Amino acid sequence: MFLKNSSVKQKLMAIVLITCGVVLLVTCSAFFTYELRTYKQNAIEHISTVAQLIANNSTASLAFENEDDARAVLKSLKAEPHILEAVLFNKDGKLFVYYPENLSTNTFPEPPFRLGYEFVQSDLIHFQPVIEQDKKLGTLYLRSDMGAMNERLKLYSLIVLCVMVGTFVLAYFLSKVLQGQITRPLLALTDTARAVSERSDYSVRAAGTGNDELGVLTLAFNNMLEQIHSRDIALQEAQQKLQGHASELERRVSERTAKLSETVAELEAFSYSISHDMRAPLRAMQGYSSYVIENFGDKIGPEGMHFLNRISRAGGRLDNLVQDILTYSRVSKEHFELHPVDLDILVGDIVQQYPGFQSPEAQITVQTGLGVVLGHEASLTQVISNLLGNAIKFVKSGMKPKISIFSEVHGTEIWTKIEDEGIGIAAKDLHRIFRIFERVHPESTYEGTGIGLSIVRKAMERMGGVVEVESELGKGCIFTIKLKRA
Predict the structure, then answer these.
(1) Core-most of 19, 250, 301, 453, by most CB within 10 Å?
(2) How far apart are CA 304 and CA 203, in angstroms?
């Protein structure tokens, strides 16, 4: 990406140099690795051979415990300048003799000895058993300096550096000379494209360069300019016609938009009028039926009482449906201004406001520290009231509703959860419950209008939040409302 804004010449130069550098680096790395392995292998073989000779010459000295002969054997290592230490231990692992004699015995290894070779820092050490006729007489310890290898690697590094510098210089000059075959046609094509872009002059043409790929590109570019020039003339003519059509279309859209706004306003007024006008006769039906039941119930008989109760309940359900439709319409259209809402205070007020949310009707546990969210207090009250009402309503017969309310902080959001132990919702029905007029359970079993959760979802959307549900049939529900922290 560092070449993104560079010129083509710089990119070609960089590609050549990077390629040369990578090839040289890989080659030199392989060469260094091979030399290092070869030198180490030779060093191991050499020290093993020396150790074997010294061990063979030291058998008599160890067998007869002749220290002078042993020292003489070790002094033969003067011919090996890279041997730094040589120590003979007897069969009990005790120091017998060492070379050179000015060494400090504190640095010598102690038994048990690990036979064979080992690289320790920049040295090679070797333990060789001294054996005669399958009888171990002692152990020989040798420590060799690997300085020669380091010197050789330094020399190789200097040679490689010189080769790389020379190669880079040669590659630079060669690429500088040869890249013109590619860059000159590209630069000419670029100049033509710049002239077209800056002056919108589609009559200019790029000079041909040959029959190679760049030549084909130049020819295709010139053909494209010819087509654009022809289309530009046609486009100017079409634009003039289009401006006339656009003015006419804009006038028609303005007229139809005004008519549509007027129609929407009339429909809203009509829907409110219908909703409010329906509630008056519904209340009359409920009032008269209640009056008849209370004052003339003993004269009507059981069958008449049954029908009157059905009328009263049907009127109540229809009244609730109208009220819910009005609420849904208000939530959908009302302008919301979001303010900080303290959930501890809001939930406490809701629980205290509705007797059905209090003991002994229900057991509601509210965790303290619910948090402060950005919301619309009236709509948030509607959301929590609807969710609590559902949690209390949808329980098994004879079971006391148990509800927990708590909050979790997730980044910039507060997730308030309302968890119940009710009848739950089957997985196949979870996607339906927030749709308007959708009912999972028959009305004969659990009353309701099928709009409550639709109001919850719409209110949460208007407040910039979401509502989610987790549930299994027979295991209760967890409704989560997610809003921004204040």
Answers:
(1) 453
(2) 96
Shared-domain flag, residues 116 and 242? no
**Helix or strand holding residue 219 (H, E):** helix 213-300
The CA-CA-CA angle for residues 440, 442, 445, to 5°, reads 120
- Which CATH number characterizes residue 95's domain? 3.30.450.20
Burial of 267 (0-12, 13-18, 19+ CB in 10 A): exposed
**Torsion of Cα atoms, 347 then 348 then 349 then 355, to 10°:** 100
Bridge partners, 485 (sequence order): 373
Instruction: Give the SS3 label for residue 342.
Output: strand
Expressed in angstroms, the distance from the first to the final Cα of the chain is: 42
Q: Number of structural domains, the chain?
A: 3
- Written as six digits, the tokens of 325 are 């439709």
Structural domain containing residue 243: 201-263
Q: Sort residue 210 into left (φ over 0), alpha (ψ -120 to 50) or beta.
A: left
Reported pTM: 0.42
Contact of 222 with 206, CB cutoff 8 Å: yes
Task: With residue 477 as reference, give the H or E element that holds it.
Answer: strand 477-484
For 135-167, the pLDDT digits (tens) are: 889 999 999 887 777 777 788 788 888 888 888
Q: Write phi, then psi, for 134 (nearest 5 degrees).
A: 60, 20
